[in-house]
Amino acid sequence: MSSHDVVITGIGLVSSLGEGPDAHWQKLTRPGLEPVLDATRFAPYTIHPLPEIDWNLQIAKRGDQRQMETWQRLGTYT
Which helix (H) or strand (E) covers residue 67, if one does? Predict the structure, then answer.
């Protein structure tokens, strides 16, 4: 393995590139990949926005979802 290899494990992979291993592999292997950036929502700060996430895939109970903040949902999801 070289210092540039990437290993994706788990089923709850989420980033600004998308949701899940398939979305990431498709984008990471595409030539000329540009970062996903949002410079307007929290100006003057630039962020890497999250995609739309179906929380039901990893957090089955709606009550649990309602009690969690976004960062808690992300931790549970991933």
Answer: helix 62-67
Secondary structure class of 15 (helix, strand, coil)? strand
pLDDT at 69: 93
Cα–Cα distance for residue pair 12/50, rounded to 1 Å = 13
User: Hey, what amino acid is at 42?
Assistant: F
Q: What is the pLDDT of residues 36-50, one digit of tens each?
A: 999 999 999 999 999
Whether the CA torsion 34, 6, 55, 26 is positive or negative: it is positive
Which residues, other chains included, contact 35 with Cβ-Cβ below 8 Å and sequence gap of 6+? 16, 48
- What would the DSSP string read from start to end of 16-53? TTEESHHHHHHHHTSTT-----BSSTTTTS-B------
